Amino acid sequence: MVVLAHQAPSVAQRCKDAGAVAAIALLLGIPMLGLTTVDQGGSLLVATRWPTLAIFVALCFAGRLLARYAIDALQARARRRPAATLLRPGARHQLSLWLGWGCFGVALALPFVFSDNRYIVDTATTVLIYVMLGWGLNVVVGLAGLLDLGYVAFYAVGAYAYAVLSTQFGWGFWQALPVAGGLAASFGLLLGWPTLRLRGDYLAIVTLGFGEIVRIILVNWTALSGGPNGIASIPRPSFFGLPFKPGDDSATFAGFFGLDFSPLHRLIFLYYLILALAMLTNLFVSRLRRLPIGRAWEAMREDEIACKAMGMNVTNVKLSAFAIGAMLGGLAGVFFAARQGFISPESFTFNESAIILAIVVLGGMGSQLGVVLASLVLVLLPELGRDFAEYRMLLFGTAMILIMIWRPGGILSQRQPTLRHRAEAGAAP
């Protein structure tokens, strides 16, 4: 009997793999990090920032090399396990867990590390909004397999629900949050009911039309939405009743904690608020995947006809996916309105739906961690290209094409099983 031993990749192979990643980072970094525009005497000149680009490429090379070593070590450890334990989570799943907890740790520490940099904290808040929206749409597209191009409509419903309830009825943020989420869920049912028999491109066209209908209603229903002028002076959430305003008394946030007033207090509070909402969304969706309704979504995604043949009520499964995804989008809309203090129909165009769908597809449909990584890519890439306003979207599109060529199934395309069977010790393999 001949036993074939698995040979680990050599150092040269690992360096070659890391070099390929560094080459891609160099191509993406030259227009975004290596070059910048400088105003000299009224004319714009292009200046080089090669040290910054070199550090970026070196970090990508070292990061890929370390990640490759970690993956190979975990795979070698899994191969040494007995056959009865091979059904446990694999090396890639463990690496995803570590990466997820690492991202969470970085997110917790970010406001303290960059406490004096308003731009970074504000950009991170925007990333978390798109993460929450991506997790909501991932229920509809990634788990249930229903293509939705009008997801921004639920985002708008949540934002306008909070704006109207707070400015016209005096509701607070926490009072309006569940009501706006429920209203967005009802709009999800309203969209899902007439589209139950549609699939693929036809479903995409209907959802696209639904998103445009909601936007046009907001533009023309001036009495409710303010029309094109939008709604201003939307109240910001407070810290358990303590407003973020100047004052030395205990009725303000700074006075209660004995701090000097700073506008960054509200910014950091909003950052942690959206972080908490995003983590609750992740926990909620992860738990739903283990319930019968979550397994029904995934089964319908794989083969709807087989689900019908087994007696599954596909109608209720689709409606539940639309309703839950819409509710999560509405909750994100409430935070968006509270953060901005002003909303208008221009904030809820088809472009937003396209970005959210791109986050789900680029991250890997059905992958929670992939949504986080794709949100970082799609939000930070345009920010890095602000120095080249005329070519910003061209560079952004080029980067997207290169990423999809490099990872056609998404950044994290490997789906982990929702449920795993653990073999008992001593059982036959």
Number of E-type strands: 2
The helix-and-strand class reads mainly alpha
> How many structural domains are formed by the residues?
2
Radius of gyration: 24 Å
Report the sheet-strand fraction. under 5%
Question: What's the story with the biggest beta sheet?
Answer: 2 strands, antiparallel
Helix content: 55-70%
Give, in spatial order, the strands making up the sheet with the most strands: 1-2
User: Number of DSSP helices?
Assistant: 16
Q: What would the principal axes of the Cα set say about the shape? A: globular
CATH topology of the largest domain: ABC transporter involved in vitamin B12 uptake, BtuC
Give the low-pLDDT segments: 1-5, 82-89, 423-429
Q: What order do the helices and strands follow?
A: HEEHHHHHHHHHHHHHHH
In short:
By secondary structure, this protein is mostly helical.
List keywords for this structure.
globular, two-stranded antiparallel ribbon, 429 residues, 3% strand, 16 helices, ABC transporter involved in vitamin B12 uptake, BtuC, mainly alpha, 2 strands, single chain
Question: Could you please describe the fold and organization of this structure?
Answer:
With 429 residues, the protein is an all-alpha fold. It has 2 domains: 9-80; 118-406, ABC transporter involved in vitamin B12 uptake, BtuC (Orthogonal Bundle). Helices cover 67% and strands 3% of the residues. It has helices at 11-34, 50-79, 91-113, 118-143, 152-168, 173-192, 200-220, 222-225, 253-256, 264-290, 292-302, 304-309, 314-340, 350-363, 368-384, 392-406, and strands at residues 35-40, 43-48. The chain has a two-stranded antiparallel sheet with strand order 1-2. A hairpin with a 2-residue loop joins strand 1 and strand 2. The longest helix is centred in the first third of the chain and has 30 residues, at 50-79. The protein starts with 10 loop residues before the first helix and ends in a 23-residue tail after the last helix. The model is unreliable at 1-5, 82-89 and 423-429 (pLDDT under 50).
